[in-house]
């Protein structure tokens, strides 16, 4: 079994009809913010498989807790943000905060998680700085206000 030594804490915005067979898997249904905080603090990394998560809330919360992430190429992590990084041989983008999965299939996620886990065992730790990413990209109120004004001006000019 791949990742047999990994203990998976799964948070779902929904209910599960059947329980996992593996003793290494624990599912939390409809987690509140307090439970998410506890799960993030008990974790070494975070995997988001929701390719429709346009807000990327869980991934951003995990980054704020300084967890390296594996997340789909959607929402905040889509190409419009021009993410700094490099594409590895499995077509996942390696960034300063983890991996962005370009092709949301099981194989891509397995490769990204495998690279994340194996790097720490081989001593090739990637220099992930998830929390520092926010400062590097400059998410200040002033930057958002400036972008908002530019968007409004652009839309008004097209009317």
Provide a concise account of the structure shown.
With 159 residues, the chain is of the alpha/beta class.
Write the layout of secondary structure elements.
Layout: E1 8-12, E2 25-29, H1 33-41, E3 46-47, H2 57-64, E4 69-72, E5 86-87, E6 92-94, E7 98-101, H3 106-121, H4 130-137, H5 141-158
Question: Could you walk me through the main structural features you see in this protein, from its secondary elements to its overall organization?
Answer:
The chain has helices spanning 33-41, 57-64, 106-121, 130-137, 141-158; strands spanning 8-12, 25-29, 46-47, 69-72, 86-87, 92-94, 98-101. It has one domain. The protein starts with 7 loop residues before the first strand and ends with a helix. The mean pLDDT is 80. With 159 residues, it is an alpha/beta fold. The radius of gyration is 17 Å and the shape is globular. A hairpin with a 3-residue loop joins strand 6 (92-94) and strand 7. It has a 5-stranded mixed β-sheet with strand order 3-4-7-6-5, with helices on both faces.
Over all CA atoms, what is the radius of gyration? 17 Å
Structural category: alpha/beta
For the record, give the distance between the C-alpha atoms at the N and C termini, rounded to a whole number: 58 Å
Total number of helical segments? 5
Low-confidence stretches: none
For the secondary structure, the number of strands is 7
Outline type: globular
Mean pLDDT: 80
Give the % helix. 25-40%
Biggest sheet, in brief? 5 strands, mixed
Tally of structural domains: 1
């Amino acid at each position: 079994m791949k990742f047999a030594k990994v203990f998976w804490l799964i948070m779902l915005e929904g209910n599960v009809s059947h329980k996992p067979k593996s003793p290494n898997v624990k599912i939390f249904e409809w987690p509140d913010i307090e439970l998410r905080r506890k799960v993030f603090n008990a974790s070494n990394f975070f995997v988001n498989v929701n390719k429709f998560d346009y807000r990327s809330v869980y991934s951003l919360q995990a980054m704020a807790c300084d967890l390296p992430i594996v997340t789909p190429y959607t929402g905040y992590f889509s190409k419009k943000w021009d993410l700094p990084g490099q594409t590895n041989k499995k077509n996942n983008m390696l960034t300063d905060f983890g991996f962005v999965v370009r092709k949301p299939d099981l194989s891509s996620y397995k490769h990204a998680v495998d690279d994340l886990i194996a790097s720490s065992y081989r001593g090739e730790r990637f220099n992930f700085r998830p929390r520092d990413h926010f400062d590097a990209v400059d998410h200040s109120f002033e930057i958002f206000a400036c972008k908002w004004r530019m968007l409004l001006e652009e839309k008004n000019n097209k009317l």
